[in-house]
Amino acid sequence: MTKGAAWCRDYLKGCCVGFAVMLGIHGCQCEVPRWGLEREREAELLRAGNTCNNESDTAEIVSGWDGRSSMDVAADCGLGCIDLTKGSSGDCVFECLSRHSGGALSRDCSDCITYAMSCVAENCQIECAPLLGGSPSSLECRACQCGQNRAQKNCHEEFRRCGGIPTPRSCPDTPNVAGTIDPVELETPKVPRPRVD
Question: Contact, 182 vs 166, CB < 8 A?
């Protein structure tokens, strides 16, 4: 039985309704606005590419803010900007990232971060959303972001397509923005094939 959005909000009492609705928790199947940027803005950013590939934005993403990685701050901003009544949260994420970066991060680069976060919101809710028992810093969330999800969409690659630089945290065998490869292995180690001479 499909319920109205107001009923779902009231029924779930302040839970992250967007995730609950997508998953059909408690029979709640509501139509809600899409999280992230408007499709036209996403297309504009992807056409331009390289929006973070400049000295200032790259330095901000590498250094992070408030003693934390830029990805952790971005995840907190994204979670804090979920608003079902508006759907698009690019302005909220930009304002949050601007506060943390002291205004040093460009709007275009911030929007690429929002674009990558919408990839996570669409593909990795269970693995990454604290309200559903996930954690943005868990190995399961990182694996999901690296393409181990039903859509096989690599959200780090989506950020690179938009921003023109890798993310601070990389997927296995992929250099991050600092040019290093993270030591965390996300996949089950593969059994070596026997040598055929």
Answer: no
| Beta bridge partners of residue 68, listed in sequence order | 65
Looking at the chain, the whole-number percentage of residues with pLDDT higher than 70 is 65
Q: Which tokens hold the place of 186?
A: 């996300």
Judge whether 169 and 142 are in contact, CB under 8 Å: yes
Contacts of 17 (CB under 8 A, 6+ apart): 8, 9, 28, 30, 32, 84
Q: Is the pLDDT of residue 109 over 90?
A: yes
> DSSP secondary structure string, 60-94?
HHHH-BTTB-HHHHHHHHHHHT--TTT-B-HHHHH
| Higher pLDDT among residues 69 and 3, named by residue | 69
Alpha-carbon distance of 80 to 10, in angstroms, equals 19
Say if residues 87 and 131 touch (Cβ distance below 8 Å): no
Tell me: pLDDT of 35 over 50.
Answer: yes
Q: Considering only CA atoms, which of 100, 76, 94 is closest in space to residue 36? A: 94
Query: Exposed, middle or buried: residue 149 (CB in 10 Å: 0-12, 13-18, 19+)?
Result: buried
**26, pLDDT greater than 70:** no
pLDDT tens figures, 129-171:
887 788 888 889 889 999 999 999 999 999 999 999 988 777 8
CB atoms within 10 A of CB 116: 25
